[in-house]
Amino acid sequence: MKTPEIFRCFLFLRVLEEIYSPVQKISFAPLNNLFVKRDDLIDPYISGNKWRKLKYILAKAKDENKTHLVTFGGAYSNHLVATAAAASRSGLQSTAFVRGEEVKNEMLLLCSLFGMKLIFTDRESYRDKLQLFAKHFAHDEQAYFINEGGASVEATIGCAEIIDELTAPYDHIFCAAGTGTTAAGLLSGIRQHQLNTKLHIIPVLKGAYFIQEEIAQYTPVSEHLKLHLDYHFGGYAKTTPELISFIKTFTAKSGILLDPVYTAKMFYAIQDLAKQGIIGKDEKVLAIHTGGLMGLLGMMDKF
Ligand SMILES: *Cc1c(COP(=O)(O)O)cnc(C)c1O
């Protein structure tokens, strides 16, 4: 494992436990060698890439003796649930600024049960996160700022560990992207290990041209990176009947759940690129299952 020196000492704090994230081969025509890195199995609440992203953020917060995590997200944010669960398990307090007017839903219920305090914030004020933090927590020395989605250098270091854990080489690795922080971590892991693997990123937002710049903030962008901007299905959290039908077939055949916001769009893209022959059917492909399945609970109406 290539944990940078300055972070190594934090591991003794055991902020987050050891994890179980096996690589499993699944049958997925037309590919003969599709493997899935099951980060969705890490934890139901601190799920997938959110666990990866929070690992060193929490370590840093603890190292700075902060006891109160303050973060930001939309009303269906996987990051908020993950932060709330991680905070309570580590004996920390948590507060979230939630974008938009006050609502109730399954995800915010989980946040509240984990003891997170929710501050609903109008869209205008929500934009300036540092100002919000300063306004509410300037005098709270225990408060620790965590950006929306956990975007940070610490998050990329945690995500790069996905690559450390691989025991076999792959021709292609696929991952869904929102902010692109996870993608940056994976690219940096591929670079550290000098792998000859292509990293295919599927942004779930429409017109996500910003992703490349976002990734470049953390790690040099190389020819290893392939962005596929055409699998957003209408935009963030948008779906189509075709995507929903894809999820049903995939899950019934593989026993692996997908969420319509992120991982379904990634698996759909893999199949489509394989059908077009852009990915060879005998090449070794690894899909990162970034978790986020709790969100399904609020999506009855999409099915
Ligand atoms: C948050 C999330 C992502 C996006 O991660 P980024 O680092 O913001 O690109 C992908 N998949 C799932 C399931 C998520 O919850």
Automatic annotation (TrEMBL):
Pfam families per UniProt: PALP (PF00291)
Transmembrane helix as UniProt keyword: no
InterPro entries associated with the record: ACCD_DCysDesulf, TrpB-like_PALP, TrpB-like_PALP_sf
Superkingdom of origin: Bacteria
Residues that bear N6-(pyridoxal phosphate)lysine: 50
The keyword Transmembrane helix belongs to this UniProt entry's keyword annotation: no
Cofactor names: pyridoxal 5'-phosphate
Record-annotated active site: 77
GO molecular function ontology, one term from the record: D-cysteine desulfhydrase activity
Keywords: Pyridoxal phosphate
Residue ranges constituting the Tryptophan synthase beta chain-like PALP domain according to the UniProt record: 32-291
UniProt cross-references to PANTHER family, sorted A to Z: 1-AMINOCYCLOPROPANE-1-CARBOXYLATE DEAMINASE-RELATED
Family note: Belongs to the ACC deaminase/D-cysteine desulfhydrase family.
Name of the protein this chain belongs to: Pyridoxal-phosphate dependent enzyme
